[in-house]
Design a protein that fits this description.
Blueprint lengths: L3 E7 L3 H25 L8 H11 L3 E7 L6 H12 L4 E7 L13 H6 L4 H10 L9 H7 L6
Antiparallel strand pairs: 1-2, 1-3
Helix pairs in contact: 1-2, 1-3
Length: about 150
């Protein structure tokens, strides 16, 4: 696998499109903070701004593009968050160059993670912030906070 192909088809009413725009901005901020925390430089993926502009208009649109390894994993996470959000009237498709549709379950997407040279451990903070992974449970901390009369 060397590239991902994506498409967003929007047939949603104006309030939903504006909600999508708001969510895309929030997720982009999460991704930017995560990249800054890791000291990663901004990777020029040309479709960040075009998708944001299209969703600002408040009406339907179709757009598509590619994500190459040099763009980093952030664009795929951003689009996967949109796909998982399940906005009514918004269809998001992301496929590999072998025509396999990627899922929103990051545990099943080791091939995609490998394309970008990463794994779940490295992307966990941003994936949790985007709602793509459930937060890790710290059992030691949880047990320490429990008042138990059982023992």
């Amino acid at each position: 696998m060397s590239v991902l192909y994506w498409q967003v088809e929007c047939r949603a009413p104006q309030p939903v499109v504006f909600a999508v725009n708001h969510a895309l901005h929030q997720w982009r901020s999460c991704i930017d903070r995560w990249q800054q925390d890791l000291g990663l430089s901004y990777v020029g993926w040309p479709d960040w701004d075009s998708l944001l502009r299209l969703s600002e208009i408040g009406r339907g649109f179709d757009t598509s593009g590619q994500i190459h390894p040099e763009h980093g994993i952030a664009p795929w996470l951003w689009l996967t968050a949109l796909k998982k959000a399940g906005f009514v009237g918004i269809d998001v498709g992301i496929v590999t160059d072998a025509s396999r549709e990627t899922s929103t379950n990051l545990h099943q997407e080791s091939e995609v993670l490998q394309l970008f040279g990463t794994d779940l451990v490295q992307i966990r903070p941003v994936a949790e912030a985007l709602g793509l992974l459930l937060p890790s449970l710290d059992l030691v901390a949880a047990l320490g906070e429990m008042d138990s009369d059982w023992f």
